[in-house]
Amino acid sequence: MQLNSLQVEVILGDITTLEVDVIVNAANTSLLGGGGVDGAIHRAAGSDLLQECRTLGGARTGQAKITGGYNLPAKHVIHTPGPIWRGGRSGENALLAASWRNSLHLAAENNCHSIAFPSISTGVFRFPIAEAAQIALGEIKEFAASPSALKSVIICCFSSKDQQVYQHALKAIAN
Ligand code: ADP
Q: What letter does residue 17 receive in the DSSP assignment?
């Protein structure tokens, strides 16, 4: 689907295989690797990624930091710790929005034309996926309102159920 100058797609797949300028890592605040998509990205990128991450000094929740992609087909990785779901009254929505927004802006600042995101915070961090998808698409729409280097956004889901949720949220904002 086209949102101004941005092509937005929701796909099912393994984000570590995507040939895009940058993939986003749903990291934790240490930026030193973990389980889920974080572990998969570090395994596929190789130990040089961890070495670069050690120089970053971690990141606050909602912040985004960029590294090389090493053995990944993607040129770069943007690492953003999404919020841990604590029931919804701990600023989770604003923090998740910040993760998406800061990642989009950082990609554009680094002249990336294409970016792929996983479903940030909805795995081990337990953010409810319907709300997460709505927040994600809201930030993409807002970002698409101003021109930038970024032309393509892929949301890479890891189950068809998740894919349906993001597809629904995409349709909802396009209207
Ligand atoms: P968080 O701690 O932010 O919740 P997780 O890695 O636990 O991060 O989960 C985020 C999402 O990433 C989940 O939907 C999970 O199924 C998905 N995921 C796990 N591995 C991959 C992968 N290789 N590619 C894309 N998505 C993945």
A: G
